[in-house]
């Protein structure tokens, strides 16, 4: 490649999916032979102790010859998950339980008593050690 010829790796088409602190990028790019391929990038936002943040990225390069197998495997695995676990997002259900307790949860928690293992305590004298 000569210095006068710019590097050809620009995005032809892009689709972005935001999912909490993750973002997924689906980008169509061009090869040197002027064919297209797909990059799928997962970008996750992380926070440092000082409050600054950074992104960690993971990429998958997918070429046309693999599209059909990729689509079939993606469809099969996503259908398997939905069939086995349903469409409800479990982390959303748990988050609701922790942020806004229902009347049912309050009644249950008042009736339950701590387990014997939680209440049992062995008085240890340091002289015994």
Automatic annotation (TrEMBL):
Keywords: DNA-binding. Residues 92-129 are annotated as: Disordered. It comes from the Bacteria. GO terms for molecular function: purine-rich negative regulatory element binding; RNA polymerase II transcription regulatory region sequence-specific DNA binding. Residues 92-103 have a biased composition (Basic and acidic residues). Residues 111-123 have a biased composition (Low complexity). InterPro entries: PUR-bd_fam. Pfam families: DUF3276. The keyword Acetylation does not apply. Belongs to the PUR DNA-binding protein family. This is DNA-binding protein. It comes from Psychroflexus gondwanensis ACAM 44. The lineage of its organism: Bacteria, Pseudomonadati, Bacteroidota, Flavobacteriia, Flavobacteriales.
